[in-house]
Amino acid sequence: MVGSNQMNQIKSLKEVFWLNPNYSSFPSIVNDLPLSYEDILEAEKRLKRFAPFIEKIFTETVDGIIESPISPIDSMKAKMEKDYGCKIYGNLILKRDDLLPIAGSIKARGGIYEVLKHAETLAIKNNLLSIYDNYSILAKDRFKDFFSNYIIQVGSTGNLGLSIGIMSAKIGFKVIVHMSQDAKKWKKDLLRSKGVEVIEYSSDYSKAVEEGRKQSESNPNSHFIDDENSKALFLGYAVGGLRIKEQLKRMGIIVDEDHPLFVYLPCGVGGGPGGVAYGLKFIYGDNVHCFFAEPTHSPAMLLGLMTGLHDKISVDDFGLDNITEADGLAVGRPSSFVGKIMDKLLSGIFTIGDNKLYTFLTALANEEEIFLEPSALAGFLGPVFLSSEEGEEYLAKQDILNKRDNITHMCWATGGSLVPESIMKEYYRKGK
Ligand SMILES: Cc1ncc(COP(=O)(O)O)c(C=O)c1O
Question: Which EC class, in a word (predicted)?
Fold first, then answer.
């Protein structure tokens, strides 16, 4: 049932906290899911095969594994409690995908994975590589020459383009990134400086994807990385979810029936947060509760899930303008591939006004000296919402209200380290 009250709030750009009425116990839905645990493990194995190559060409990685740390953010928690006059029960931590090597955002997980998978498929098909080789040979000129015969294309609001552009250019592919009007100038400039062709559109993200797809289809040597539909992208993100298990274990953080994990993920088209949530569910099942965060001006996934219409509805149909400072989340129409997977797996979605992205940005900088891009702050409203009446309702329904002191809240910081200093200063000033 779609609450008409919430629909009206969405239309009038009010922040909402929507609890998914279709949310189901993970064991009851796992057999109906389109990708298996083995598929995620396979993706993880492929990334390991590439580790010697990545280590060689991106010296900033540790052992060629592209991963980010997790930071405790106790001061930020205290600041949020003070600013919002609420009690955040449990522990607050931050997953630092802003620090992911190479492309500094969550989109590096899927984007880089799909580029590598494509390169591997081509090289194996042409008898240049076997999965038993040491993949550091891929850095040799003969491979670069080979890959230069192929094109990779992608439509992006910015960060996916960055991750694909940077990795593809290193491998030797020719790359074309189709970018929407919301994409920040510095992201376009950075890509061009890496030798990537950037085509700009005066329309939004969905149009950039559509154009890219069309142009790629007309060339048999071109591969289109489809942010709306790609299983490979999704699996790349899902590996990020799997790896949380070891990280939390090392930090001494328990996740079990008595110690729930709540994860708050900024959402654009849905692939990044959807894939991560998917991986997390395979690890923790019903003990992890995943929420997406979207700007009040671009609640695409929220509308898709609430109405069950997925990509048959856009924010425009709701009279919303899809204009937000959170460029990575400026998506008007959600992925139906991801939406259908999330239908029973996602606990809920909340929206956040742009002004709060900035106040969180500045607070996090002041309290923790962590600097994120605006999109990456969207999840911070999650722990605040969870302390509200609706949050308590959710906890009671899940039978964990009496365990809320044991909750670990994890906000997923989805990007930021590549933002130029002058622009970050401007963001900080705005938040102040
Ligand atoms: C910083 C940042 N956070 C979150 C997202 C959302 O990812 P997705 O569009 O896959 O939902 C993006 C997308 O580009 C992003 O750039």
Answer: lyase
